[in-house]
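Sample entry (638 residues):
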Amino acid sequence: MSSYRAVIGLAGHVDHGKTLLIQALTGIITARAHEQAIGMTQDLGFAHFDDGLGNTIGVIDVPGHERYVRNMVAGLWSLDLVLLVIAADEGWMPMTGDHLRLLKAMGVPRLLVCINKCDLVSPAELAQLEEQLLERVMDESGMVPDIVCVSAKTGENIGALHAAIVRQLADVAAVQTAREQQPPRLYVDRVFTASGTGTVLTGTLQQGCLRVGDKLRLYPAGREVQVRSLQAYHRQVDEIGAVCRVAVGLKKVPHKEVARGHCLTSASGHCLGGEDGPAAATQLIVRLEEDARSVRERRNREVEVALGSWHGRAQLVYLRAAEADDQPELARLRFASPLPCFFGQPLAIIRHGSSELLHGARILWCGDVHPARRKALHHLLRALPWDLAGHSPARLQLALSGHALASAFDALPPDAEPLREWVVNPGWLADTLTAVENALDTEPMSAAELANRLQVALALIGLLLQRLKGAQRIRLHHDKWQRGDGESEDDLGEEALLVLKLVRDQGKEGYEPGKLGPGGVAIDPVLKLRLPQGLQQKGALPKQLRNLARLKYLVQLEGPIYYDAALYQQMVQAVLAGQQVGDLIDMGSLKERVGLSRKYAIPFCLRMEMDGWLRREENDRRVLRLPANAPQSGEAQP
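Predicted structure, serialized as C-alpha coordinates:
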Protein backbone atom coordinates (compact mmCIF):
# COMPACT_ATOMS: atom_id res chain seq x y z
CA MET A 1 0.00 0.00 0.00
CA SER A 2 1.24 3.49 -0.82
CA SER A 3 1.74 6.09 1.89
CA TYR A 4 -1.32 7.86 3.22
CA ARG A 5 -2.66 9.66 6.29
CA ALA A 6 -6.08 9.05 7.84
CA VAL A 7 -8.11 9.83 10.92
CA ILE A 8 -10.69 7.46 12.40
CA GLY A 9 -13.14 7.79 15.29
CA LEU A 10 -14.92 5.63 17.81
CA ALA A 11 -18.63 6.18 18.56
CA GLY A 12 -21.26 4.33 20.53
CA HIS A 13 -23.26 4.17 23.73
CA VAL A 14 -21.71 5.31 27.02
CA ASP A 15 -19.72 2.67 28.94
CA HIS A 16 -19.38 0.32 25.97
CA GLY A 17 -15.59 0.52 26.29
CA LYS A 18 -14.50 2.99 23.60
CA THR A 19 -11.74 4.63 25.64
CA LEU A 20 -10.30 1.31 26.84
CA LEU A 21 -10.46 0.00 23.27
CA ILE A 22 -8.40 2.96 22.05
CA GLN A 23 -5.83 2.25 24.75
CA ALA A 24 -5.62 -1.38 23.64
CA LEU A 25 -5.26 -0.33 20.01
CA THR A 26 -2.81 2.57 20.44
CA GLY A 27 -1.31 2.33 23.93
CA ILE A 28 -2.57 5.87 24.62
CA ILE A 29 -5.05 6.83 27.35
CA THR A 30 -7.32 9.52 25.91
CA ALA A 31 -9.38 10.10 29.06
CA ARG A 32 -8.36 13.10 31.16
CA ALA A 33 -7.89 12.72 34.91
CA HIS A 34 -11.35 14.00 35.84
CA GLU A 35 -12.93 11.75 33.16
CA GLN A 36 -11.11 8.73 34.56
CA ALA A 37 -12.37 9.65 38.02
CA ILE A 38 -16.03 9.60 36.92
CA GLY A 39 -15.62 6.81 34.39
CA MET A 40 -17.13 8.82 31.53
CA THR A 41 -15.73 10.62 28.48
CA GLN A 42 -17.05 14.18 28.32
CA ASP A 43 -15.09 15.73 25.46
CA LEU A 44 -13.04 14.66 22.49
CA GLY A 45 -9.95 12.55 23.13
CA PHE A 46 -7.05 11.99 20.72
CA ALA A 47 -4.61 9.18 20.01
CA HIS A 48 -2.76 7.61 17.07
CA PHE A 49 -1.10 4.40 15.95
CA ASP A 50 1.04 3.02 13.14
CA ASP A 51 -0.63 0.78 10.57
CA GLY A 52 2.46 -1.43 10.35
CA LEU A 53 3.39 0.00 6.94
CA GLY A 54 4.82 3.30 8.17
CA ASN A 55 1.56 5.25 7.95
CA THR A 56 0.12 7.07 10.95
CA ILE A 57 -3.60 6.80 11.69
CA GLY A 58 -5.12 9.37 14.02
CA VAL A 59 -7.88 8.34 16.42
CA ILE A 60 -10.65 10.47 17.94
CA ASP A 61 -12.60 9.27 20.97
CA VAL A 62 -16.06 10.85 21.15
CA PRO A 63 -18.31 10.95 24.25
CA GLY A 64 -21.09 8.38 24.38
CA HIS A 65 -23.46 9.99 26.85
CA GLU A 66 -26.52 11.81 25.51
CA ARG A 67 -25.55 14.85 27.57
CA TYR A 68 -22.38 15.31 25.50
CA VAL A 69 -23.74 14.63 22.02
CA ARG A 70 -22.72 18.19 20.93
CA ASN A 71 -19.09 17.33 21.69
CA MET A 72 -19.56 13.97 20.00
CA VAL A 73 -20.62 15.41 16.64
CA ALA A 74 -17.68 17.88 16.72
CA GLY A 75 -15.38 14.87 16.26
CA LEU A 76 -17.24 13.30 13.34
CA TRP A 77 -16.98 15.82 10.49
CA SER A 78 -13.55 14.87 9.10
CA LEU A 79 -13.24 11.13 9.71
CA ASP A 80 -12.25 8.54 7.11
CA LEU A 81 -13.73 5.70 9.16
CA VAL A 82 -15.88 5.27 12.28
CA LEU A 83 -15.84 2.27 14.58
CA LEU A 84 -19.34 1.86 16.01
CA VAL A 85 -18.59 0.22 19.35
CA ILE A 86 -21.30 -2.01 20.89
CA ALA A 87 -20.89 -3.93 24.14
CA ALA A 88 -21.62 -7.62 23.71
CA ASP A 89 -23.40 -7.87 27.06
CA GLU A 90 -25.76 -4.92 26.41
CA GLY A 91 -26.18 -4.92 22.65
CA TRP A 92 -27.96 -2.15 20.77
CA MET A 93 -28.78 0.83 22.98
CA PRO A 94 -30.64 4.10 22.27
CA MET A 95 -27.43 6.13 21.86
CA THR A 96 -26.08 3.46 19.49
CA GLY A 97 -28.83 4.36 17.02
CA ASP A 98 -28.45 8.10 17.65
CA HIS A 99 -24.71 7.91 17.00
CA LEU A 100 -25.19 5.85 13.85
CA ARG A 101 -27.68 8.33 12.41
CA LEU A 102 -25.47 11.28 13.35
CA LEU A 103 -22.32 9.85 11.78
CA LYS A 104 -24.22 9.13 8.57
CA ALA A 105 -25.65 12.69 8.58
CA MET A 106 -22.15 14.11 9.02
CA GLY A 107 -20.99 12.27 5.91
CA VAL A 108 -18.66 9.65 7.38
CA PRO A 109 -17.76 7.45 4.36
CA ARG A 110 -16.80 4.14 6.05
CA LEU A 111 -18.20 2.17 8.97
CA LEU A 112 -16.80 -0.74 10.95
CA VAL A 113 -18.90 -2.36 13.71
CA CYS A 114 -16.80 -3.40 16.69
CA ILE A 115 -18.45 -5.68 19.27
CA ASN A 116 -16.49 -5.12 22.50
CA LYS A 117 -16.50 -7.17 25.72
CA CYS A 118 -16.90 -10.41 23.76
CA ASP A 119 -15.40 -12.24 26.76
CA LEU A 120 -18.63 -11.58 28.69
CA VAL A 121 -20.94 -13.66 26.46
CA SER A 122 -20.98 -17.16 24.95
CA PRO A 123 -19.97 -17.83 21.33
CA ALA A 124 -23.61 -18.61 20.46
CA GLU A 125 -24.81 -15.35 21.97
CA LEU A 126 -22.05 -13.49 20.12
CA ALA A 127 -23.01 -15.06 16.77
CA GLN A 128 -26.66 -14.16 17.30
CA LEU A 129 -25.70 -10.57 18.23
CA GLU A 130 -23.62 -10.26 15.06
CA GLU A 131 -26.64 -11.18 12.92
CA GLN A 132 -28.90 -8.76 14.77
CA LEU A 133 -26.43 -5.89 14.53
CA LEU A 134 -25.74 -6.42 10.84
CA GLU A 135 -29.45 -6.23 10.08
CA ARG A 136 -29.98 -3.24 12.39
CA VAL A 137 -27.08 -1.21 10.93
CA MET A 138 -28.20 -1.92 7.36
CA ASP A 139 -31.76 -0.81 8.18
CA GLU A 140 -30.63 2.36 9.97
CA SER A 141 -27.89 3.50 7.59
CA GLY A 142 -28.07 1.58 4.32
CA MET A 143 -24.42 0.57 4.83
CA VAL A 144 -23.17 -3.03 4.92
CA PRO A 145 -20.43 -2.99 7.55
CA ASP A 146 -17.70 -5.44 8.51
CA ILE A 147 -18.01 -6.67 12.09
CA VAL A 148 -15.10 -7.47 14.40
CA CYS A 149 -15.48 -8.95 17.90
CA VAL A 150 -12.87 -7.96 20.48
CA SER A 151 -12.21 -7.60 24.17
CA ALA A 152 -10.38 -4.40 25.03
CA LYS A 153 -9.92 -5.69 28.58
CA THR A 154 -8.19 -8.98 27.66
CA GLY A 155 -6.71 -7.87 24.33
CA GLU A 156 -8.53 -10.63 22.43
CA ASN A 157 -8.72 -10.00 18.67
CA ILE A 158 -7.14 -6.51 18.86
CA GLY A 159 -4.78 -7.60 16.08
CA ALA A 160 -7.78 -8.52 13.90
CA LEU A 161 -9.32 -5.11 14.60
CA HIS A 162 -6.05 -3.44 13.59
CA ALA A 163 -6.01 -5.42 10.34
CA ALA A 164 -9.68 -4.62 9.62
CA ILE A 165 -9.03 -0.89 10.06
CA VAL A 166 -6.06 -0.96 7.67
CA ARG A 167 -8.11 -2.97 5.17
CA GLN A 168 -10.96 -0.44 5.32
CA LEU A 169 -8.52 2.40 4.60
CA ALA A 170 -6.91 0.64 1.64
CA ASP A 171 -8.38 3.02 -0.93
CA VAL A 172 -7.32 6.20 0.90
CA ALA A 173 -3.84 6.13 -0.64
CA ALA A 174 -5.36 6.47 -4.14
CA VAL A 175 -6.84 9.88 -3.26
CA GLN A 176 -4.02 11.12 -1.01
CA THR A 177 -2.44 13.39 -3.62
CA ALA A 178 -5.80 14.84 -4.65
CA ARG A 179 -6.65 15.60 -1.02
CA GLU A 180 -3.35 17.40 -0.47
CA GLN A 181 -3.70 19.52 -3.61
CA GLN A 182 -6.96 21.13 -2.44
CA PRO A 183 -6.99 24.35 -0.41
CA PRO A 184 -6.34 23.64 3.28
CA ARG A 185 -9.39 23.16 5.51
CA LEU A 186 -9.23 22.69 9.25
CA TYR A 187 -12.09 23.12 11.71
CA VAL A 188 -10.87 24.05 15.19
CA ASP A 189 -11.83 21.71 18.05
CA ARG A 190 -9.46 22.97 20.79
CA VAL A 191 -7.69 26.25 21.57
CA PHE A 192 -5.02 26.86 24.22
CA THR A 193 -2.00 29.02 24.96
CA ALA A 194 1.49 27.46 24.97
CA SER A 195 4.53 29.12 26.54
CA GLY A 196 6.88 30.43 23.86
CA THR A 197 4.34 29.76 21.09
CA GLY A 198 1.26 31.75 21.99
CA THR A 199 -2.15 30.73 20.69
CA VAL A 200 -2.37 27.13 19.50
CA LEU A 201 -5.38 25.57 17.83
CA THR A 202 -5.92 21.90 17.11
CA GLY A 203 -8.11 20.13 14.63
CA THR A 204 -8.18 17.64 11.81
CA LEU A 205 -6.64 18.86 8.57
CA GLN A 206 -9.26 17.42 6.22
CA GLN A 207 -7.65 18.55 2.97
CA GLY A 208 -4.67 20.52 1.66
CA CYS A 209 -1.25 21.09 3.20
CA LEU A 210 0.04 23.39 5.92
CA ARG A 211 3.56 24.83 6.13
CA VAL A 212 5.32 26.94 8.72
CA GLY A 213 5.13 30.54 7.50
CA ASP A 214 1.90 30.03 5.52
CA LYS A 215 -0.52 32.94 5.48
CA LEU A 216 -4.03 31.61 5.96
CA ARG A 217 -7.46 32.99 6.77
CA LEU A 218 -9.45 32.28 9.93
CA TYR A 219 -13.24 32.30 9.60
CA PRO A 220 -15.85 33.50 10.47
CA ALA A 221 -13.93 36.75 11.09
CA GLY A 222 -12.00 36.28 7.83
CA ARG A 223 -8.82 37.67 9.39
CA GLU A 224 -5.43 36.78 7.92
CA VAL A 225 -3.16 34.73 10.17
CA GLN A 226 0.30 33.23 9.83
CA VAL A 227 1.50 29.79 10.91
CA ARG A 228 4.25 30.03 13.52
CA SER A 229 4.61 26.31 14.28
CA LEU A 230 3.17 22.91 13.37
CA GLN A 231 2.92 19.73 15.37
CA ALA A 232 1.49 16.39 14.26
CA TYR A 233 1.15 13.52 16.71
CA HIS A 234 3.54 15.15 19.21
CA ARG A 235 6.26 15.82 16.60
CA GLN A 236 7.33 19.24 15.38
CA VAL A 237 7.10 19.44 11.58
CA ASP A 238 7.68 22.12 8.95
CA GLU A 239 4.99 20.78 6.64
CA ILE A 240 2.04 18.40 6.92
CA GLY A 241 -0.66 17.16 4.56
CA ALA A 242 -4.22 15.89 4.99
CA VAL A 243 -5.78 13.93 6.59
CA CYS A 244 -4.04 14.45 9.92
CA ARG A 245 -4.48 15.69 13.49
CA VAL A 246 -2.55 18.95 13.70
CA ALA A 247 -1.66 21.57 16.32
CA VAL A 248 -1.12 24.96 14.68
CA GLY A 249 0.66 27.82 16.47
CA LEU A 250 -0.45 31.23 15.18
CA LYS A 251 1.52 34.47 15.19
CA LYS A 252 0.06 37.41 17.14
CA VAL A 253 -3.48 36.03 17.39
CA PRO A 254 -5.13 36.52 20.81
CA HIS A 255 -6.44 33.32 22.38
CA LYS A 256 -9.90 34.86 22.84
CA GLU A 257 -10.29 35.40 19.07
CA VAL A 258 -10.26 31.65 18.26
CA ALA A 259 -12.91 29.13 19.31
CA ARG A 260 -14.19 25.65 18.53
CA GLY A 261 -16.06 25.75 15.22
CA HIS A 262 -13.80 28.33 13.60
CA CYS A 263 -12.23 27.30 10.29
CA LEU A 264 -8.67 27.75 9.05
CA THR A 265 -8.32 27.81 5.27
CA SER A 266 -6.47 29.37 2.36
CA ALA A 267 -5.88 33.14 2.37
CA SER A 268 -6.28 33.21 -1.41
CA GLY A 269 -9.81 31.78 -1.44
CA HIS A 270 -12.15 34.21 -3.21
CA CYS A 271 -15.20 32.17 -4.10
CA LEU A 272 -17.15 32.29 -0.86
CA GLY A 273 -19.03 29.12 -0.28
CA GLY A 274 -17.14 27.47 -3.14
CA GLU A 275 -14.14 25.22 -3.47
CA ASP A 276 -11.60 27.98 -2.74
CA GLY A 277 -12.90 29.25 0.55
CA PRO A 278 -15.75 29.21 3.01
CA ALA A 279 -18.64 31.53 3.43
CA ALA A 280 -19.21 33.24 6.76
CA ALA A 281 -22.99 33.00 6.60
CA THR A 282 -25.91 33.67 8.91
CA GLN A 283 -28.30 31.92 6.51
CA LEU A 284 -28.05 28.60 4.68
CA ILE A 285 -30.31 26.77 2.29
CA VAL A 286 -29.91 23.04 2.80
CA ARG A 287 -31.30 19.93 1.14
CA LEU A 288 -32.77 17.49 3.62
CA GLU A 289 -31.47 13.99 3.02
CA GLU A 290 -34.18 11.67 1.78
CA ASP A 291 -33.43 8.96 4.33
CA ALA A 292 -33.26 11.25 7.34
CA ARG A 293 -35.43 10.33 10.29
CA SER A 294 -38.96 11.48 9.51
CA VAL A 295 -40.58 14.32 11.43
CA ARG A 296 -44.36 14.26 11.68
CA GLU A 297 -44.91 17.96 12.26
CA ARG A 298 -43.30 20.07 9.53
CA ARG A 299 -43.23 23.48 11.15
CA ASN A 300 -40.69 26.21 11.69
CA ARG A 301 -38.79 25.64 14.89
CA GLU A 302 -35.64 26.26 16.89
CA VAL A 303 -33.16 23.44 16.40
CA GLU A 304 -29.52 22.65 17.05
CA VAL A 305 -27.10 22.28 14.17
CA ALA A 306 -23.79 20.42 14.02
CA LEU A 307 -21.55 21.59 11.20
CA GLY A 308 -17.83 20.91 11.06
CA SER A 309 -16.69 21.14 14.68
CA TRP A 310 -19.31 23.87 15.34
CA HIS A 311 -22.62 23.34 17.02
CA GLY A 312 -25.27 25.80 18.09
CA ARG A 313 -28.84 26.94 17.69
CA ALA A 314 -30.64 27.91 14.51
CA GLN A 315 -34.11 28.66 13.23
CA LEU A 316 -35.32 25.97 10.80
CA VAL A 317 -37.74 27.09 8.09
CA TYR A 318 -39.09 24.47 5.65
CA LEU A 319 -39.29 25.63 2.03
CA ARG A 320 -42.25 23.81 0.58
CA ALA A 321 -42.15 22.97 -3.11
CA ALA A 322 -45.00 24.00 -5.36
CA GLU A 323 -44.02 21.24 -7.79
CA ALA A 324 -44.22 17.45 -7.44
CA ASP A 325 -44.00 15.84 -4.04
CA ASP A 326 -41.04 13.69 -5.07
CA GLN A 327 -38.73 16.70 -5.35
CA PRO A 328 -36.02 17.14 -2.69
CA GLU A 329 -37.16 19.13 0.31
CA LEU A 330 -35.25 22.31 1.06
CA ALA A 331 -34.99 24.25 4.30
CA ARG A 332 -33.51 27.54 5.40
CA LEU A 333 -31.38 27.74 8.53
CA ARG A 334 -30.92 31.12 10.23
CA PHE A 335 -28.13 31.67 12.77
CA ALA A 336 -27.59 34.48 15.27
CA SER A 337 -23.99 35.03 14.10
CA PRO A 338 -21.95 34.02 11.03
CA LEU A 339 -20.40 30.57 10.87
CA PRO A 340 -17.92 29.14 8.35
CA CYS A 341 -19.38 26.66 5.87
CA PHE A 342 -18.88 25.21 2.38
CA PHE A 343 -21.04 24.19 -0.55
CA GLY A 344 -22.00 20.51 -0.35
CA GLN A 345 -20.95 20.22 3.29
CA PRO A 346 -22.97 17.74 5.39
CA LEU A 347 -24.57 18.82 8.63
CA ALA A 348 -26.85 17.39 11.28
CA ILE A 349 -30.07 19.05 12.45
CA ILE A 350 -30.84 17.90 16.00
CA ARG A 351 -33.99 18.40 18.04
CA HIS A 352 -33.33 21.18 20.51
CA GLY A 353 -32.55 19.84 23.99
CA SER A 354 -32.14 16.19 22.97
CA SER A 355 -29.88 13.89 20.96
CA GLU A 356 -32.56 13.06 18.37
CA LEU A 357 -31.53 13.64 14.77
CA LEU A 358 -34.28 15.47 12.89
CA HIS A 359 -32.49 15.62 9.54
CA GLY A 360 -29.21 15.01 7.85
CA ALA A 361 -28.66 17.74 5.28
CA ARG A 362 -26.30 19.14 2.67
CA ILE A 363 -25.49 22.82 2.20
CA LEU A 364 -26.58 24.04 -1.23
CA TRP A 365 -26.46 27.82 -0.76
CA CYS A 366 -24.60 30.09 1.66
CA GLY A 367 -26.13 33.48 2.44
CA ASP A 368 -29.32 35.20 1.39
CA VAL A 369 -30.56 36.07 -2.09
CA HIS A 370 -32.64 38.95 -3.42
CA PRO A 371 -36.36 38.18 -2.84
CA ALA A 372 -37.09 38.49 -6.57
CA ARG A 373 -34.66 35.62 -7.25
CA ARG A 374 -35.64 33.23 -4.48
CA LYS A 375 -38.13 31.22 -6.51
CA ALA A 376 -35.62 30.74 -9.33
CA LEU A 377 -32.90 29.78 -6.83
CA HIS A 378 -35.10 27.18 -5.15
CA HIS A 379 -35.91 25.68 -8.56
CA LEU A 380 -32.18 25.42 -9.39
CA LEU A 381 -31.36 23.85 -6.02
CA ARG A 382 -34.10 21.25 -6.32
CA ALA A 383 -32.82 20.31 -9.77
CA LEU A 384 -29.33 19.45 -8.45
CA PRO A 385 -28.51 15.72 -8.44
CA TRP A 386 -28.08 13.91 -5.13
CA ASP A 387 -24.40 13.43 -5.93
CA LEU A 388 -23.01 16.98 -5.86
CA ALA A 389 -19.61 16.03 -7.31
CA GLY A 390 -18.76 18.34 -10.19
CA HIS A 391 -21.18 21.04 -9.05
CA SER A 392 -20.27 24.29 -7.35
CA PRO A 393 -21.92 27.51 -6.16
CA ALA A 394 -20.26 29.25 -9.11
CA ARG A 395 -22.37 27.20 -11.54
CA LEU A 396 -25.45 28.03 -9.52
CA GLN A 397 -24.49 31.71 -9.48
CA LEU A 398 -24.02 31.70 -13.25
CA ALA A 399 -27.41 30.05 -13.78
CA LEU A 400 -29.16 32.34 -11.31
CA SER A 401 -27.54 35.72 -11.96
CA GLY A 402 -26.03 35.29 -15.42
CA HIS A 403 -22.49 35.96 -14.21
CA ALA A 404 -19.81 34.51 -11.91
CA LEU A 405 -16.08 34.88 -11.30
CA ALA A 406 -14.03 32.96 -13.85
CA SER A 407 -11.55 31.86 -11.17
CA ALA A 408 -14.26 29.65 -9.68
CA PHE A 409 -14.23 27.39 -12.76
CA ASP A 410 -11.58 24.90 -13.85
CA ALA A 411 -12.78 25.31 -17.45
CA LEU A 412 -15.10 27.68 -19.28
CA PRO A 413 -18.67 26.37 -18.85
CA PRO A 414 -20.55 25.55 -22.05
CA ASP A 415 -22.76 28.34 -23.43
CA ALA A 416 -20.83 30.94 -21.41
CA GLU A 417 -18.67 33.86 -22.51
CA PRO A 418 -15.47 35.11 -20.81
CA LEU A 419 -15.40 38.78 -19.84
CA ARG A 420 -12.02 39.53 -18.28
CA GLU A 421 -12.13 38.00 -14.77
CA TRP A 422 -15.80 37.06 -15.18
CA VAL A 423 -17.84 34.41 -16.96
CA VAL A 424 -21.21 35.60 -18.26
CA ASN A 425 -24.26 34.14 -19.93
CA PRO A 426 -24.56 35.69 -23.44
CA GLY A 427 -28.29 36.32 -23.03
CA TRP A 428 -27.73 38.00 -19.70
CA LEU A 429 -24.94 40.10 -21.20
CA ALA A 430 -27.15 41.40 -24.02
CA ASP A 431 -30.04 42.13 -21.66
CA THR A 432 -27.84 43.92 -19.13
CA LEU A 433 -26.16 46.09 -21.75
CA THR A 434 -29.61 47.14 -22.91
CA ALA A 435 -30.64 47.79 -19.31
CA VAL A 436 -27.62 50.04 -18.80
CA GLU A 437 -28.49 52.09 -21.87
CA ASN A 438 -32.13 52.33 -20.84
CA ALA A 439 -31.11 53.55 -17.39
CA LEU A 440 -28.83 56.21 -18.91
CA ASP A 441 -31.66 57.35 -21.18
CA THR A 442 -33.42 58.67 -18.07
CA GLU A 443 -30.45 60.47 -16.48
CA PRO A 444 -26.64 60.34 -16.30
CA MET A 445 -25.50 57.94 -13.59
CA SER A 446 -22.26 56.90 -11.94
CA ALA A 447 -21.02 53.30 -12.14
CA ALA A 448 -21.93 52.80 -8.46
CA GLU A 449 -25.48 54.03 -9.06
CA LEU A 450 -25.88 51.68 -12.02
CA ALA A 451 -24.50 48.73 -10.01
CA ASN A 452 -27.01 49.41 -7.25
CA ARG A 453 -29.96 49.83 -9.62
CA LEU A 454 -29.21 46.71 -11.67
CA GLN A 455 -27.94 44.60 -8.73
CA VAL A 456 -24.67 43.80 -10.50
CA ALA A 457 -21.17 43.84 -8.97
CA LEU A 458 -19.44 47.21 -9.42
CA ALA A 459 -16.37 45.61 -11.03
CA LEU A 460 -18.57 43.88 -13.62
CA ILE A 461 -20.58 47.05 -14.31
CA GLY A 462 -17.27 48.75 -15.07
CA LEU A 463 -16.51 46.18 -17.78
CA LEU A 464 -20.00 46.57 -19.30
CA LEU A 465 -19.60 50.35 -19.39
CA GLN A 466 -16.27 50.03 -21.16
CA ARG A 467 -17.84 47.74 -23.75
CA LEU A 468 -20.59 50.28 -24.45
CA LYS A 469 -18.05 53.09 -24.57
CA GLY A 470 -15.96 51.10 -27.07
CA ALA A 471 -19.07 50.83 -29.22
CA GLN A 472 -19.34 54.66 -29.02
CA ARG A 473 -22.73 54.47 -27.28
CA ILE A 474 -21.86 56.14 -23.95
CA ARG A 475 -19.25 58.48 -22.47
CA LEU A 476 -18.15 59.59 -19.01
CA HIS A 477 -18.75 63.25 -18.16
CA HIS A 478 -18.50 64.85 -14.74
CA ASP A 479 -18.09 61.40 -13.15
CA LYS A 480 -21.42 60.35 -14.65
CA TRP A 481 -22.02 58.07 -17.59
CA GLN A 482 -24.36 59.41 -20.26
CA ARG A 483 -25.60 58.37 -23.66
CA GLY A 484 -23.75 59.58 -26.73
CA ASP A 485 -20.36 59.52 -28.40
CA GLY A 486 -17.46 61.87 -27.74
CA GLU A 487 -14.49 62.29 -25.46
CA SER A 488 -14.79 60.27 -22.26
CA GLU A 489 -13.17 61.47 -19.09
CA ASP A 490 -11.99 58.01 -18.06
CA ASP A 491 -9.50 58.17 -20.96
CA LEU A 492 -7.66 61.07 -19.30
CA GLY A 493 -4.52 60.55 -17.29
CA GLU A 494 -4.21 61.14 -13.56
CA GLU A 495 -2.67 64.59 -13.94
CA ALA A 496 -5.26 65.70 -16.49
CA LEU A 497 -8.07 64.59 -14.19
CA LEU A 498 -6.54 66.58 -11.33
CA VAL A 499 -6.32 69.71 -13.47
CA LEU A 500 -9.92 69.20 -14.60
CA LYS A 501 -10.97 69.00 -10.95
CA LEU A 502 -9.04 72.19 -10.16
CA VAL A 503 -10.96 74.08 -12.83
CA ARG A 504 -14.37 72.64 -11.97
CA ASP A 505 -13.95 73.39 -8.29
CA GLN A 506 -13.50 77.11 -9.09
CA GLY A 507 -17.00 77.33 -10.54
CA LYS A 508 -17.88 80.74 -12.02
CA GLU A 509 -14.70 82.35 -10.74
CA GLY A 510 -12.79 80.45 -13.38
CA TYR A 511 -9.30 79.12 -13.08
CA GLU A 512 -6.32 81.37 -13.79
CA PRO A 513 -2.99 79.51 -13.97
CA GLY A 514 -1.22 82.81 -13.38
CA LYS A 515 -2.36 82.62 -9.77
CA LEU A 516 0.19 79.88 -9.29
CA GLY A 517 3.05 82.21 -10.17
CA PRO A 518 5.54 81.91 -13.02
CA GLY A 519 5.69 78.33 -14.16
CA GLY A 520 3.46 77.12 -11.30
CA VAL A 521 4.32 76.37 -7.67
CA ALA A 522 3.90 73.29 -5.49
CA ILE A 523 0.81 74.52 -3.60
CA ASP A 524 -2.34 75.78 -5.27
CA PRO A 525 -3.26 78.93 -3.24
CA VAL A 526 -7.00 78.54 -3.82
CA LEU A 527 -7.56 74.84 -3.11
CA LYS A 528 -4.53 74.40 -0.81
CA LEU A 529 -3.89 71.29 -2.86
CA ARG A 530 -0.38 69.97 -3.40
CA LEU A 531 0.17 69.39 -7.09
CA PRO A 532 1.92 66.22 -8.26
CA GLN A 533 5.54 66.46 -9.26
CA GLY A 534 4.72 66.31 -12.97
CA LEU A 535 2.58 69.47 -12.78
CA GLN A 536 5.24 71.38 -10.85
CA GLN A 537 7.56 71.35 -13.86
CA LYS A 538 7.68 74.56 -15.84
CA GLY A 539 4.99 74.68 -18.51
CA ALA A 540 3.35 71.39 -17.46
CA LEU A 541 0.20 72.92 -16.01
CA PRO A 542 -0.51 75.33 -18.92
CA LYS A 543 0.07 72.46 -21.32
CA GLN A 544 -2.53 70.28 -19.55
CA LEU A 545 -5.01 73.19 -19.53
CA ARG A 546 -4.56 73.81 -23.27
CA ASN A 547 -4.91 70.10 -24.02
CA LEU A 548 -8.14 69.86 -22.00
CA ALA A 549 -9.47 72.89 -23.88
CA ARG A 550 -8.56 71.24 -27.20
CA LEU A 551 -10.46 68.12 -26.09
CA LYS A 552 -13.42 70.40 -25.22
CA TYR A 553 -13.43 69.55 -21.52
CA LEU A 554 -12.52 73.19 -20.81
CA VAL A 555 -13.28 76.52 -22.46
CA GLN A 556 -10.51 79.14 -22.50
CA LEU A 557 -11.41 82.81 -22.05
CA GLU A 558 -9.03 85.71 -22.45
CA GLY A 559 -6.71 86.07 -19.53
CA PRO A 560 -6.28 83.17 -19.81
CA ILE A 561 -9.20 82.05 -17.70
CA TYR A 562 -10.49 78.50 -17.93
CA TYR A 563 -14.06 77.29 -17.35
CA ASP A 564 -15.53 73.85 -17.29
CA ALA A 565 -17.12 73.31 -20.72
CA ALA A 566 -20.46 72.21 -19.25
CA LEU A 567 -20.59 75.28 -17.00
CA TYR A 568 -19.80 77.53 -19.97
CA GLN A 569 -22.67 75.99 -21.97
CA GLN A 570 -25.04 76.46 -19.03
CA MET A 571 -24.12 80.16 -18.86
CA VAL A 572 -24.62 80.52 -22.63
CA GLN A 573 -28.08 78.98 -22.21
CA ALA A 574 -28.81 81.42 -19.37
CA VAL A 575 -27.82 84.43 -21.52
CA LEU A 576 -29.89 83.35 -24.53
CA ALA A 577 -32.93 82.02 -22.70
CA GLY A 578 -36.09 83.78 -23.96
CA GLN A 579 -34.20 85.68 -26.68
CA GLN A 580 -34.76 85.82 -30.43
CA VAL A 581 -32.17 86.19 -33.15
CA GLY A 582 -31.52 89.92 -33.59
CA ASP A 583 -32.35 90.93 -30.00
CA LEU A 584 -29.95 93.27 -28.18
CA ILE A 585 -28.63 92.39 -24.71
CA ASP A 586 -27.03 95.06 -22.55
CA MET A 587 -24.03 94.25 -20.37
CA GLY A 588 -25.86 94.75 -17.08
CA SER A 589 -28.56 92.26 -18.07
CA LEU A 590 -25.94 89.77 -19.21
CA LYS A 591 -24.00 89.97 -15.92
CA GLU A 592 -27.23 89.47 -13.99
CA ARG A 593 -28.23 86.42 -16.04
CA VAL A 594 -24.93 84.58 -15.52
CA GLY A 595 -23.96 85.95 -12.09
CA LEU A 596 -20.50 87.14 -13.13
CA SER A 597 -18.58 90.21 -12.04
CA ARG A 598 -17.36 92.61 -14.74
CA LYS A 599 -13.87 91.09 -14.49
CA TYR A 600 -15.21 87.76 -15.75
CA ALA A 601 -18.26 88.96 -17.71
CA ILE A 602 -16.22 90.76 -20.37
CA PRO A 603 -13.95 87.76 -21.20
CA PHE A 604 -17.08 85.60 -21.19
CA CYS A 605 -18.79 87.91 -23.72
CA LEU A 606 -15.72 87.89 -25.90
CA ARG A 607 -15.77 84.10 -25.94
CA MET A 608 -19.49 84.07 -26.86
CA GLU A 609 -18.67 86.45 -29.71
CA MET A 610 -15.81 84.22 -30.85
CA ASP A 611 -18.17 81.21 -30.82
CA GLY A 612 -20.70 83.10 -32.98
CA TRP A 613 -23.47 83.51 -30.40
CA LEU A 614 -23.25 87.31 -30.14
CA ARG A 615 -21.94 90.37 -32.05
CA ARG A 616 -20.85 93.52 -30.26
CA GLU A 617 -22.68 96.73 -31.20
CA GLU A 618 -21.25 99.59 -29.12
CA ASN A 619 -22.05 98.70 -25.47
CA ASP A 620 -24.64 96.02 -26.31
CA ARG A 621 -24.52 92.53 -27.85
CA ARG A 622 -26.80 91.36 -30.61
CA VAL A 623 -28.00 87.73 -30.68
CA LEU A 624 -26.80 85.98 -33.83
CA ARG A 625 -28.04 82.43 -33.18
CA LEU A 626 -29.73 80.33 -30.54
CA PRO A 627 -29.06 76.87 -29.09
CA ALA A 628 -31.16 74.19 -30.77
CA ASN A 629 -33.13 73.53 -27.58
CA ALA A 630 -33.48 77.18 -26.45
CA PRO A 631 -37.13 78.39 -26.19
CA GLN A 632 -38.07 81.45 -28.30
CA SER A 633 -39.44 84.61 -26.77
CA GLY A 634 -43.15 84.12 -26.05
CA GLU A 635 -42.88 80.31 -25.84
CA ALA A 636 -43.72 78.51 -22.66
CA GLN A 637 -40.69 78.31 -20.37
CA PRO A 638 -39.87 75.03 -18.67
